[in-house]
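Fold sample X.
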Amino acid sequence: MENTKEIEVFEDKRSFEQEGITGSITRYTTTTFEYPCIIITHTAEHPIMRFQVEALKRIMQTNSSFGELKTDEQFVTVYIQMQDVTTKYGKVSTKQMRLLLSTFEKNKLVGYYSDGRILEDFMVYVLAD
């Protein structure tokens, strides 16, 4: 069974005024966290560099080489957070997590093993096979 938690990732507030009609429009885009997952945060001190995104893309392209994996429980969902927006980027095999962690070692990484089970600092290595 896949553990999920709904989170708010973007809020767009607009106001409009037209003859005879006034009001506001609020639109929310939401996504659900899929566990286990890791969130890579882009900050001014530790920005996500282009070479890191390219490396992550290549890591995800090689997921097909792990065809013997049978369930999603052997994958970790990757999210990237920039400012207040968190975006799902894809899934990485647990066998590739050490490579991902070394690629993003200077960035802020927060892992979740399940809802409410936060993994920070060296504890994110629990997600690696």
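Fold sample Y, listed below.
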Amino acid sequence: MTTGRRRLSEILPILLRWGTFTVGISVMPVVFNALAAYTRGQPVRYVDLVANGELLLVSVAISAAAVGELAVGIGPWASGKVLLMAMSLFTSILAAWWFADVTAVARAHDPVDRHAIAVGSTWVFASALVVGACCIFASRMTP
């Protein structure tokens, strides 16, 4: 077996564990909201499920966990790992700030574009997933 395949076979279970526990459990409130709407006979629309910033909170959790994985020890490929940490921190700060704004607007009963929040938070969530997975992968890289 080649070294690259061996490394992939070692990292894949770690990525699956991260996906199951960090990502999977983090999105459970969105899943529960969908089940609650379905149980009550209400339409289950994506915008309604995520327009309150739920994915932004999930993105904060995913990004923070990813930084934690890399912060344990930089080691080899330090500049790439520092870049990934910076990207994760940026995503986490952006998502936290935006979630705070979304909730402040909701408390003030100001009008918002729910579709824009749903689409934007989906992009932030996707970014958190990609960068988070890269952080998990990079945290296990050895020379």
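Sample Y note: Helices lie at 3-26, 28-39, 46-50, 54-71, 78-108, 114-139.
Also: Residues 3-139 form one domain.
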